[in-house]
Amino acid sequence: MLYLSDGFSEAVRRHTPMTARVAAYDSTGKYIADTFYDPRWIRLLGQGSTVSYDQDNNERSQASLNFLVDSVDGLAMLDSAAYTELRPYLGVEVDGDMEWAPMGVFTATETKVNPLNDTVSMVNVQCSDRTERISNNPWYKPFAVASGLTYYQAMALVLADRARGFTPVLITDDATSGLLTPAMKFNENEDPWAGAIVRMAEAQGSDVYFDREGSIVARKLLDPGKVTPAVTLNTPNGDHSQLGTPTLTSNRRQTFSGVICKAEAPWLLFPVSATVWDDDPGSPTWRNGPMGERPLTITDSLATTQAQCALIAQARLEKIKGQAEDLELGMLRDPRLEVGDTIERYSAATDTLNMYRLVRLSFDLGSGTMQATGRRRR
């Protein structure tokens, strides 16, 4: 959950209308324009502009932004070939000043121009986060990483080599991880993000993504049952953040109570694997519950020991356990929420307080609403 001021949080609780803005920076990071403070070339059409997040995707954040443009400079700035970075925000007035919640750092991947008259055009820009600027910069010769480094050090080397148009900032929760890399070589034309960064994060049981300010975050996944819920919805005492009736979907075929990780490093002389289970009796995927022991089997080409396989399996389990029920609902907009946060929702039908991990979020920058999908943990 984003940490903003108490005044911002109070405005969210009161459902205060918010203002959307987009700041634009050129491919070198130099400021160009701002639709709120400096609307010289572009004006944001908030209605229909969306920012969405998906915890299951390697590219976690995407945006679809609509603008009114009345200049050649504005059209050139939004051209996908310009590599302009667009940074949307949602803000409220707190103590006489605007406070802004960052919603991501994006680059245009597709631009559609619809002329409205001789001078004004409506422009739709489909955007990806900075993941795309690494993925689309593959190696043209093999890239080697020496043995004996921490995985965070190895990730930093890849980022420094492949990040294009920005200086990568890596935020970690454990810079002194005890696991060390084997000698690794990444092939030409390999995706540096999915094929290297994500694999190295998984090799030490971490999740990795770009946060809303454009930094790379690599952190261990926490059990949502052991963290304080970000919000509680639909409570009997009058919470009205939920909009309409939610959709509940269960899919037993995609639900697992454990993970088996098998090492596939080519230099291993004998099989190495580890199995972890959901041992929480309150979880819908408890190994001793109705589902029983139903493991998902995965492989990893960087793992070398049983302990490392166990770390990788535990990280995957934290993502998939509790998938017995997906909750899809509309909510009044709360830009503090992030995928991975835990929420609670009171069910009047069963008189229970259920816990969900948010896996998908979508914010409409103009309507004041958001869509959320959560997986039930309890």
Topology:
Elements: H1 6-13, E1 19-25, E2 31-34, E3 42-54, E4 61-69, H2 72-78, E5 85-94, E6 97-102, E7 106-115, E8 121-129, H3 131-135, E9 143-145, H4 151-162, E10 170-172, E11 184-186, H5 193-203, E12 206-210, E13 216-220, E14 231-233, E15 242-249, E16 258-263, E17 273-277, E18 295-300, H6 306-320, E19 326-332, E20 342-347, E21 352-364, E22 369-376
Parallel strand pairs: 10-13, 14-20, 16-18
Antiparallel strand pairs: 1-2, 1-5, 3-4, 3-21, 4-8, 5-6, 5-7, 7-8, 9-11, 12-13, 15-19, 16-17, 19-22, 20-21, 21-22
Helix pairs in contact: 4-5
Please name the defining characteristics of this protein.
15% helix, alpha+beta, 378 residues, 14-stranded mixed β-sheet, globular
What does this structure look like?
The protein is α+β, with helices and mostly antiparallel strands. Helices cover about 15% and strands about 40% of the residues. The chain contains six helices and 22 strands. Strands 1, 2, 3, 4, 5, 6, 7, 8, 14, 15, 19, 20, 21 and 22 form a 14-stranded mixed β-sheet that branches. Strands 10-13-12 form a three-stranded mixed β-sheet, covered by helices on one side. It is globular, with a radius of gyration of 22 Å.
Q: From the helix content, strand content and strand pairing, which structural class follows?
A: alpha+beta
Bulk shape = globular
Q: pLDDT below 50 for ≥5 consecutive residues: which ranges? A: none
Radius of gyration: 22 Å
Report a brief summary of the structure:
The protein is of the alpha+beta class and 378 residues long.
